[in-house]
Amino acid sequence: MILYDYFRSSAAYRVRIAIELKGLAVERRPVHLLRDGGEQKRPEYLAKNPQGLVPALELDDGTVLTQSLAIIEYLEALAPNPPLIPANPIRAAKARAVALVVACDIHPLTNLRVLNYLQQELDQSQAAIESWRRRWILKGGLEAIEQAIEPAPFCFGAEPTIADVCLVPQVFNARRFAAPLDRLEKIRAVESACLALPAFRAAHPSAQADAE
Ligand SMILES: N[C@@H](CCC(=O)N[C@@H](CS)C(=O)NCC(=O)O)C(=O)O
After folding, report:
1. For residue range 201-210, what is the model confidence (pLDDT) as tens digits?
2. SS3 of 62, please?
3. Domains in the chain, start-ordered, CATH in brackets?
4. What spacing in Å lies between the alpha carbon of 102 and ligand 1's midpoint?
């Protein structure tokens, strides 16, 4: 399998964590999102993922899967252990809900193409864009997740789930863009527990071959 990846992509980072937790052998192929206007917009990549986004996972038969949560659900079916979706249906729904807050509510509003649109098409200042990004990361995003999780020490128990897999990359982004996390004590505790695990550390942006 080949993962089309970019070290700083938080969506790709989610998939890298799942791959590492499950101990799967996956080749990484970097797609530089900024170089030459963005390698994700090249025809050869668009032929694989018409959305022009990373991650994408190419299977050995050439099938290409897109969307990080769909890829993680595929990996879960392929390699059920360790499980990332709790067996208990209520815990499963809670873990998926945190993943969806990150992937559906925070990330789409703070993604590169949205910020580029604000800057290039709507002529917004850098200060306005940074304010926008921090606003959507925190309000109804990480602040709501802080209320929802039950760290023990991971979001919903003694093992990491899809909630942790999605939360840690979003916290990485929040730190990168100086969103204040001081009041998000539970989230910071979950992040520490996760980053103590080799799988999370191996998936970290700074540990990738294309890291800058
Ligand atoms: N919902 C998608 C989001 C993928 C996505 O937005 N990826 C970003 C990087 S984190 C990207 O490729 N951005 C390129 C661009 O905006 O041009 C997923 O979960 O996979």
Report:
1. 999 999 999 9
2. coil
3. 2-82 (3.40.30.10), 89-200 (1.20.1050.10)
4. 12
